Fold this protein.
Amino acid sequence: MAGDTNIHWTDDGELLSKYVLRQIPAEERAQLAAHLGVCEQCRAAVKRESLIAAGTKLAAREELKDRLKSRLAYDDQRAALSATRTKGHGVPWARISGLAAAAVIVVVVGVYNNWFSTDHRRIHSIPENVVQEQQQPKVESARKSQEARPREDEPLHESLQEKDLAQSSAGTKGESSENERASNPDFRAGGKSKKQSPTEELQTNIAAVPATGADVRAGAAEEMKLESDMRLTDQAMIAPPQAFWIEGHIIASATTQDEYTNEQAASSKVGQYSLLKQRPIEGKKDVKSLQLSEIDGTITNIFLNQKPSSSLPPARQARRTHSGIVQTFVENRADSIHITLYLDSIASETSLRSENIETIGSDSLVLHLPNQRVGLRLPSALVGQVKSKTKR
Amino acid sequence: MSPSFFFLNEDARILDQIRNGEEEALVRLYETNERQIQSFVMKNSGTQDDAKDMLQEAIVILWERVHTGRYEHTAKISTFIFATVRNLWLRRLARTRRESPLEIDNETTPSEESSALDEMIETEQAAAVVAALNKLGDPCRRLLVLYYWEELSMEQIAEQMGFANSDTAKSKKYLCKKELQRLLAHLG
C-alpha cells in the first residue's frame, strides 16, 4: 500500500474518517501513520479531514454551550421568581407568631381593660356619664370591639381611665395597634384602618418591599406586591434578567450580501474569539471594548458578537417568522452586557465597533452594519438610566 | 456494583441522563460545580465570566466524552470537571500571556511562537468550517454533527435521521462532505 503511488488508503473516505476520529486500533493506526510519512497527498487529505472534524465539533460544542446558557438563564429567572414567591407564600412563621402574639395581647388588654375600668370606677368614683361615654362603643356592640380600642389618629382621651390605661400598658398599645393592622381584613385588602396621606401610603408600600421580610406590619402589603410582581412579564422583571432573547428589527437594508466574502468568513467566528480573548483580566481595562455606557455612574462595556442565523437554537429558529427580525441574545454580566446578533449575513468585525452603535432614547440601540441597520430595544429593567456616551 | 446501587449514585444517574440526551443534567452539573470552579478561576487571575465560560466548556467536553464513549467513570464527575477546567484555564492563561504585547516573555522560544501561530491558524480554519457548515444547513449539518461529534455509526445515523438504511446514510454523508468542501474552497 505504501509503495503504490496511485492508490492511497486516504482515498477510502470511511477509513480516513475513522483514522481522524481515532476509531482504529493502535497497531493499524501506526501502519497508516507510517504511510503518511512518505505520501504528501495523504497528509493533505488527513489534514482536510481533521479540519472538517474539528470544525464540526466546534460548531456542535458552541451550539450545546448556547443551549446550556439559555437553560441557565431561564433557570436563574425562574429561581429568582420562585425565591421571591416562597418568601411570600411559604409558611409565614413570623406572621403567624405575630398574629398569635397580637391575639394574646388583645385578650389580655381586653380583660385588663374590663377589670381596670370596673376597679377604677369603684376607687375613684368617676362620674357615671364619663365612664359610660368611654365605654359606650363596647357596651353598644361587642361586634365592634375594634372601634373600642385606642386609635392613633384620635386625640388622647382625657379621662383618668384612658391615661392610666396608657401608662399601665405602655409598649403594648403600639404593638397591639400594629398587630391589629396586620390582622385587620380591611388593611389586608388595601383599605386603611388608619387614614394615610399619599406620602404615608407610599412609605407603607416601600416598607412592604421584600427587604423588610418578616416584618408583620409589612406582611400583608408585601404579599399583595408579590402577587402583582408574579404577573409581570420578563420584560419588566423585578431585577434585571441575566440573559434573555430579544428581537431586533431591521430598519433598512442598503445592499444584500448573499454570499460570504473571504474577509467576512474569516472574521465571523475569529472575530468573536478575539473579542472574548480581550476580556479584562485582573482589573485591566479592555482597551478594545466596543462600547462604554454609563449606567448609574458605573462604566459598563457593551460587547457585540455575531453569529449566523442558521446556528440559532431550534426554539428560536421557529420564531424567525420574517426576514425583518434579528433574533438577539443578551447577557447581562457583572460588569458588561454581551449582545449576540444572529444575522442572515455575517458582517465584518470592524462593523461591530463602537462608532457604528447609536443609542436612541434611554433604552434603544441602532447598529449600523454595512448592509443594514438593526434596531434593538433593551428591557427597561436592564438598561436603567443609560446615559449614552456613544458617538456616531 | 449492583444496578440498584448505581441508581442511587448521583454521578451514575447524571451520566445516564447525558447518555439519554437529557440536557437538564448539564444545568445540575453547572450548579453543583459553580462555586468550586469560580473560586479556582478567580484565584488564578480570572473573572467570574471566565469561570462561567470555563465551566460551560468543561461540561460540554464531558457531554462529548460520554456520548462518544470516551468517558471513564473512574473518579467523581466533579473531579473530572475540575481537572478539565484547570487544564483549559492554564492553557488560556498561557495563550493570553503570549498575545499580550505588554507581557512578552523574552525567553519565549521560536517553537512556542510557531505553536501559537499554528493554534491560531487552526482556530481560524475551524471557524471557516463552522461558517461553511452553517451555510450548508440541515439535514447535512446534523448528519455531520452526528458523525463527527457524536461519533455515531452509520446505522445509528440512519435510525436517528430516518434514512432507509446505513448505505443511504453513508451516501448522504459523502454528498454532504463534498458540498462542505466545495463551500470551504469557495470561502478561500
Q: What stands out?
A: Chain A has three domains: 1-90, 93-232, 236-278+288-387. The first strand of chain A starts at residue 243 and ends at 253.
